[in-house]
Amino acid sequence: MTGSFEEIIARDQRIEPRDEMPDGYRATMIRQISQHAHSEIIGMQPEGTWITRAPSLRRKAILLAKVQDEAGHGLYLYSAAETLGVDREDLTERLISGKQKYSSIFNYPALTFADVGVIGWLVDGAAICNQVPLCRSSYGPYARAMIRICKEESFHQRQGYELLMTMMRGTDGQRRMVRDATDRWWWPSLMMFGPPDAESPNTAQSLAWRVKRHTNDELRQRFVDLAVPQAEALGVTLPDPVLRWNEERGRYDFGEVDWTEFKQVIAGNGPCNAQRIAQRRAAHEDGAWVREAAEAYAAKEAVA
Ligand SMILES: [Fe+2]
Ligand SMILES: [Fe+2]
Q1: What pTM does this model have?
Q2: Who surrounds ion ligand 2 at CB < 5 A?
Q3: Which of 165, 197, 254, 269 counts the most CB atoms within 10 A of its CB?
Q4: 152 Cα–ligand 1 center, Å
């Protein structure tokens, strides 16, 4: 009664796990959702290193809650991917063997506590720009997971910005830390939207399937337009000499991302790629006994 795949897409309704779907659509969704899940899980690492070194109990509690949210996002998304017939164990294997990618942004280090603020402001901010349209993804379980995730991401963005505001009202040293972290994270944040439209061959198909709602360049522009006034309110200068308001377009013009760096990081040669995967692999191995215990318990329950 819901109609064929094409009819559901044309009516802008959701595809559900039991609906028929083209193999290409299924494969695209598995790739998109699992890479997103991996990004949430790996994304816990840069900031996670600051939990034990947070400057106050309040900051520690906020950061702990934030990093824990990211774990939750990863778990929702692995569950959404599993509705397409893949297994989480298998997806984890693809991540730690390097067969599947995660967002390039998490291969940069968080060097000072100001990075926690800048990651919230820019990285979670860029994630929100990317993810709000995904609440209308044509794949139902993904779209529904994104609604909850986006609510939590906006808390992440605000806690980051509030931390930076506090630091900017502090000492000269704190202001320097904020400016330095902004300089380091600005360009990698713009890379989060992916390659330029001209080099994004899958965009047209993804738009037609409504698993993507805007092109990479559109979303990048939207993010820049939001971030510039926020930087001004904060009192930091974004590290782009070309950045300026374009009266005619009613948008900001901005410089070209260093795509060579982007490709290098994607290819595994970013500052922290090896460390991130090694840490994830170690955590997975350390957790083996928990999985075994859970399986033994489930088997016992099934017998009872
Ligand atoms: Fe997240
Ligand atoms: Fe987040």
Answers
A1: 0.95
A2: 124, 153, 156
A3: 254
A4: 7
